[in-house]
Amino acid sequence: MIISRLIPKGSKTFKQINKRIDTYHLFISNNYVLNLLGVWTVTVAGYAFLIGQIDRYSYWSWNGFPECLIKIILSTALFYLLFKQGIIKLTEKRLNYINILYNSSFYFLCFIIGTLRFSSFEISFLGYVPYLSFIFAGSLIYEYKVSYDTENDNWLLDSWDNKVQYMLASILLMAISVVLGFILDDPIISTVSIVSVFFPIVTLIWPNHIRHIKRLQFYPLFTFSMFVCVRAPWFFLFLFLLFFTIRSINYLKYGVVYPSFGVHLEEVSTDV
Fold first, then answer.
1. In terms of Cα–Cα distance, which of 202, 230, 195, 264 is closest to 41?
2. Which residues of 255-269 are buried (b: 16+ CB within 10 A; e: fewer)?
3. Lower Cβ count inside 10 Å, N or C end of the chain?
């Protein structure tokens, strides 16, 4: 990361900024700003799905930005409203199946918001199914709670409980998305799913290690967002600003680049 080279951890500049960064870090933590990556991605995915229904070969179009911006704002407002009402849960503890269902339903609702259009247009509701399946798979993936131990400078995992059940369910749901996406001629969800399915497979069959969970929770969402940008390229600017703002604040607070494309092989996990 560029900022880690410009402002090395332990340098005088780093220490000076570190003393003043708490306000910004508390803001992104208390307001769950990182979760907006998922909220925005599934919303714009809905819009990309709508565009694909209108024109299968529509790519790299900068049209529709104002329309989709309204949808992003609506999904964001709904995210904070439902969180405040306790309908969706954002916690460091594992959720029960009902809460997982509620959270998944919310993200699917964001996808539906992305597909809405005031003008009359017949949309194939069967095409929603592979996205619904992928969203539910993602909800299971994020049930593994990763945290950073500042004292020992490593990453910890809350528990490996239900690893087999969650990974098998995620693999099955992603496989459904692959098959249905292919049958329905949806290149975005079929490709995203077939790339993403290997991450829960690796997590399932390889020995327990936190690096598998970190990749599992990063690359499927990253892949999804990048393929969505193929039909809505302006969305990349949103992702870039949000992603690197969060990374920069986390680095200046902890000296750790997170979220990150890479993981360190020496990272360890705690099974509790």
1. 230
2. bbbbbeeebeeebeb
3. C
Single-letter amino acid, residue 22: D
Q: How many CB atoms lie within 10 A of CB 100?
A: 18
Joined tokens for residue 107: 């993200």
Taking a C-beta distance cutoff of 8 angstroms, is the pair 52, 61 a contact? no
Quote the CA–CA distance of 136 and 132 in Å, as a whole number.
6
Is 270 contained in some domain? no
The Cα 102–Cα 82 span in angstroms is: 10
Could you say which DSSP state residue 148 is in?
E
Q: Total structural domains in the chain? A: 1
Q: Which two tokens stand for residue 172?
A: 């099955």
Cα angle for residues 28, 77, 98 (degrees, 5° grid): 85
- Flag whether 268 is in a domain: no
* 267 inside domain: no
Counting Cβ atoms within 10 Å, is residue 217 exposed (0-12), middle (13-18) or buried (19+)? Answer: buried
Give residue 177's domain range.
2-254
232-249 residue pLDDT tens: 999 999 999 999 999 999
Instruction: For 14-48, write each residue's pLDDT tens digit.
Output: 889 988 899 999 999 999 999 999 999 999 999 99
Total Cβ atoms within 10 A of residue 77: 10
Sequence-distant (≥ 6) Cβ neighbours of residue 139 within 8 angstroms = 100, 103, 104, 107
Residue 17 CB neighbours (<10 A): 16
269 is a domain residue: no
Which residues does residue 154 pair with via DSSP β-bridges, in sequence order?
149
As beta bridge partners, residue 155 has 148
Residues 49 and 19: their CA atoms lie apart, in Å, by 45
Contacts of 149 (CB under 8 A, 6+ apart): 155, 156
